[in-house]
Amino acid sequence: MKAYDSQVGGGHYKGLAIQPMQYSMANNLNAGQHTAIKYITRYPEKAGKIDLYKSLHVVMILIEEEYEWTERDSAIIAAIMAAISEKTPLSIAAKSTNIAGWES
């Protein structure tokens, strides 16, 4: 038996064609990249929206680790959160928070 044939603490990875750990190792991803992929992959079968929030948090950590965090980053996160809470397209929320060109 191989380790990937069993799962401790649930079955949220068992039905996948490839588990997040296999994908991450095959692609030499760092811990942050792996963790974000793990949460996004498992959210429908495990913790739902909480796992998606966790993935957002990990992405914010990656931004802080890989780039210098700026006020613009805070504004972009605020626009994303506004778009989510208001259920509006992000492009509209970005304009209302004055962060034109956020995509670059």
Account of the protein in words:
The chain has 104 residues and is mainly α. It has two domains: 1-68, no CATH class; 70-104. Helix content is 58%, strand content 0%. Helix 2 (31-42) packs antiparallel against helix 3 (49-66) and helix 4 crosses helix 5.
Please sum up the structure shown.
The chain has 104 residues and is an all-alpha fold. Helices cover 58% and strands 0% of the residues.
Report the radius of gyration as a whole number of Å: 17 Å
CA(first)-CA(last) distance:
47 Å
The helix content is 55-70%
What structural category do the secondary elements indicate? Answer: mainly alpha
- How many helices? The count is 5
Write the layout of secondary structure elements.
Elements: H1 20-26, H2 31-42, H3 49-66, H4 71-86, H5 90-96
List keywords for this structure.
single chain, 104 residues, mainly alpha, 2 domains, 5 helices, 58% helix, globular
